Amino acid sequence: MTVSFSSLACLHTHVLQSAAKIKIESRFCVLVRARISHKAFWRCGQALDALQRHADALEVYEGGVLAAKNAGASTKAFQKEMEKCQQKIEEEQKLLETTTASAKVDGATPPETAPARSTADPIPESKATNTVKSTSEKKKNEAGATKDSSSNKLFTKSDHVRGYKIVNGKKTSYFHNELSEDAKKLIGDIAPKKLERVDVEEEKKNNSSDDKTSVWNTAGTWEERDTSPWAKETLTQALLSAEYSLPLSSPQPGAVVKITNVKSLNGHASIASVRGKRRYMYEFSTTLEWEMDIPSDGNTCTGSIEFPDIDGTCDGEYEMTNYTVKSVGTAGGAAKHLLDRFVKNGGLRDVLTEKLNEWVTLFQST
């Protein structure tokens, strides 16, 4: 009997399309063992393995070993597949023995062992399908068996894998957490307690934070209180009190420069209490109008300055911007040097820095 390689390739194509529908006779491979390529044995064995016919596949692989030796090819792949088939055959035998033993324990009639089938006789497709279905149904029936009335067990045969356990003599979920005695001691008493009415005045007296936090905040958690209105009022007063008299060594001794108006003051201030400590937060920007009286010639110079950042990051030094001179009276250009020296770069500017630092100290003492 001679079989062309194209016919075997066609057979392999059908195997890939639907392994469950292929019917391959192991006797076919036995008869042509000496005439076909070892690759054909490999494809035939793979098809039989896919059909769960491990005994037939083992025989085909044995024929493939002989064919490979005749062709001078390696037999490692065949040896590996043979070991897998042998292992699967042993597992099926163990499963059959386990099923038989379980049936005897439950009092059921053990399944009759079918006579050994020759590897030359193929299993019909419908019979193989029915065998698989009956085995699967039997396993499901065994897993879902009812309680044993004679022993009055709480668990069925499948309960141990479904997550049940016994707690205080009752069956409950596996996720039920029963605390140990050590854990109960560690947690302490967690029973709900009735809240009693607290006298507010008495609580204030016992409050160790010196009224820096609210009565309810006995734990000292974060609590912030807005002080912007008070801060703006006191800061405005401090800025309006800024005044500088030119020294006797100056070109205009006795002349006075001062802040006449706080044109704008924007920002906020707040005090935060946390863990018994206070944090003072403030951030302002202001535009000020100034005036210098020169008594020697009766001139009055006016202008404005701006402090864009008054906050805790300034560290006692405040940037002054937008210095402008609106009028110098009849003094003309002679007043420019005087104003730059005692308004822009010193004099009034130094006094304003002192007033701002005094206000920060006052704010942090509240």
Structural write-up:
With 366 residues, this protein is an alpha+beta fold. It contains 11 helices and 8 strands. Strands 3, 4, 5, 6, 7 and 8 form a 6-stranded antiparallel beta sheet that branches. The protein has a two-stranded antiparallel sheet with strand order 1-2. A hairpin with a 2-residue loop joins strand 5 and strand 6. Helix 1 runs parallel beside helix 3 and helix 3 packs antiparallel against helix 4. The N and C termini lie far apart (112 Å).
Q: Could you list some keywords that capture this structure?
A:
366 residues; six-stranded antiparallel beta sheet; two-stranded antiparallel sheet; 11 helices; 8 strands
Number of DSSP helical runs: 11
Mean pLDDT: 74
List low-confidence stretches. Answer: 15-34, 113-129, 143-152
State the secondary-structure class.
alpha+beta
Number of strands: 8
Taking the alpha carbons of the first and last residues, their distance comes to 112 Å
SSE string, helix = H, strand = E? HHHHHHEEHHEHEEEEEHH
Could you write a compact summary of the structure shown?
The chain has 366 residues and is an alpha+beta fold. It has helices spanning 5-17, 26-31, 38-50, 54-71, 76-105, 125-143, 181-187, 200-206, 228-240, 334-344, 348-364, and strands spanning 164-167, 170-173, 223-226, 243-245, 256-274, 277-294, 299-311, 321-327.
Write the layout of secondary structure elements.
Blueprint: H1 5-17, H2 26-31, H3 38-50, H4 54-71, H5 76-105, H6 125-143, E1 164-167, E2 170-173, H7 181-187, H8 200-206, E3 223-226, H9 228-240, E4 243-245, E5 256-274, E6 277-294, E7 299-311, E8 321-327, H10 334-344, H11 348-364
Antiparallel strand pairs: 1-2, 3-5, 4-5, 5-6, 6-7, 7-8
Helix pairs in contact: 1-3, 3-4, 4-5, 9-11
